[in-house]
Structure formats: structure tokens, C-alpha cells
Amino acid sequence: MKLKIENLAKRYGNFDALRPTSLDVPEGEFLTLLGPSGSGKTTLLTMIAGLSLPDSGDIYIDGKRATKEPAFNRDIGMVFQNYALFPHLSIAENVAFPLRMRRIPEGEIRQRVTTMLEMISLPHVADRVPRELSGGQQQRVALARAMVYRPSIVLMDEPLGALDKNLREQMQIEIKHLHKRLGTTIIYVTHDQEEAMAMSDRICLMNGGGVEQLSEPQEIYNRP
Ligand code: ADP
Ligand code: ADP
């Protein structure tokens, strides 16, 4: 079990942003949190990332209790809707960043950055800066940066939300390709049902701060 969540809950004042929620995510799974705005998806994701703390419950990553571990101690990569690339760093240096943080030797950084840039079909933009790239290209770079150190889990919060429909469909295929190639466990947030159906191994349907249903895409309409 790559990720195990037990009775995780979060309140803001009297408001239940996430009611007690339990979830098991096996290694290599592509799990999508699908639900309308305000259903608790981001609340759950930021607690898994370690960017906010639950009021109760526990998080286990690779069998180890991570509930109170700070974000940088969790073996987790993140991709956001707004890319969040470092504007003054080159593309190569953006992708290299998580490796530098972990003091990986220069030779290995060069090699891994090259491999990732090839994997996202952007080997020629290594020396450019983010603003010289299109939105779709920037999001590919964000994907490469999140996956370059082979984290155990990658969290994606509406990563394609800022892209137009054609590009979104193309990027869905590319993300699935990276997922297959690297075998990373992915937890993906979207409010787009089609996207969830196209990409997921399982879909976790959320509403009002709770899980309504957890099922494979083809079963999503067959409510119990
Ligand atoms: P989703 O990602 O599904 O759109 P969120 O997890 O962001 O939903 O939010 C769930 C609910 O919690 C929303 O009603 C939101 O307004 C509320 N919420 C989120 N963050 C805060 C906060 N920092 N303070 C107060 N309420 C919050
Ligand atoms: P500099 O040219 O000062 O090294 P770059 O931003 O071009 O700055 O490169 C930063 C780091 O990214 C390099 O030290 C290297 O590890 C890696 N890198 C740079 N260019 C490439 C490239 N074309 N292919 C693969 N890795 C690269």
C-alpha cells in the first residue's frame, strides 16, 4: 500500500471541509478525486502533501506514519494548475531543482534532466526560461520537475485546468504515458468527469467533504 489514509478529517471553524475519510491507494495506481468545487478535494490533497495538518486521523506513506512529517520529508511530488515554475531559472534548472535539493551529483542531474526533457518531448528548451514557453510546454516542465526524482507519489491538482480543450486531451495522453513509463502512484484532482473517466484506474467521487463512491471508471454510473 503506497498511501493509506485513516479517518482523516479537517474543519474550518464549524465547517467540515473533510469529514472522516479512509482510503487505500496501492502502488502504481492512478486515483482521481472527482467532485464539484468545494467538495474537499484540495483539502485532502494538501494534507497528503503535508501543506496543511489534519485535525484527526492518520496518513501512511510506504507504510510509515507521515501525518506530522513536514512536506519536504514526504516522498511526494506536486503539480499545480498554475505550473509554479521558478521564473528566473532555466527550464533545465527548474527540472533539476528537486535533485539539487537532494544533493544528487552533477553528472547524474545532467543525465536525469536530459531523460526527463526527452520524455516530455522538449529536449530543445533546456536553456530557455519559463515565460518563453507556451502554457502546455510549461505544464510539461512542471510534470517533469514533479517526477524527476522518482517520488513515491505524485499529487496533481487540476493540472490541465488552464489549458484549452485540444491541448488538455493531448496532455492527458502524455500524463498517462509518463505514469505507465515511471510507474508512479498518482493522485489526480479534477472536476471534469470526462477527464477522470479517460485517465483513472479508480475514481473517488467526493461531495460535501466526504467520499460518496469509490469505483473503477466503468462502474462510476452504477451507484450501489
Ligand atoms: P475543492 O478542492 O473540492 O474545490 P476545497 O477542499 O478547496 O474543495 O474546499 C472545501 C471546503 O472548505 C470549501 O467549502 C472551502 O470554502 C472550505 N475551505 C477550504 N480552505 C479553507 C480555509 N483555509 N478556511 C476556510 N474554509 C476553507
Ligand atoms: P548552465 O548553462 O549555467 O549550466 P543551465 O540552466 O543551462 O545553466 O543548466 C543547469 C543544469 O541543468 C546543468 O548544470 C545541467 O545539470 C542541466 N542541464 C543543462 N542543460 C542541459 C541539457 N541540454 N540537457 C540536460 N541537462 C542539462
TrEMBL record:
Q: Where is the ABC transporter domain?
A: 3-224
> What main location does UniProt list?
membrane
Q: Name one GO cellular component term.
A: ATP-binding cassette (ABC) transporter complex
Q: Where in the cell is it found?
A: Cell inner membrane
- List UniProt keywords, sorted A-Z: ATP-binding, Nucleotide-binding, Plasmid, Transport
Q: Which domain of life is it from?
A: Bacteria
Q: How does it sit in the membrane?
A: Peripheral membrane protein
Q: Can you name one GO molecular function term for this protein? A: ABC-type transporter activity
Family label: Belongs to the ABC transporter superfamily.
Q: What is this protein called?
A: Spermidine/putrescine ABC transporter ATP-binding protein
Q: Which organism is it from?
A: Pararhizobium polonicum
- Report which part of the complete sequence is shown: 1 to 224 of 342
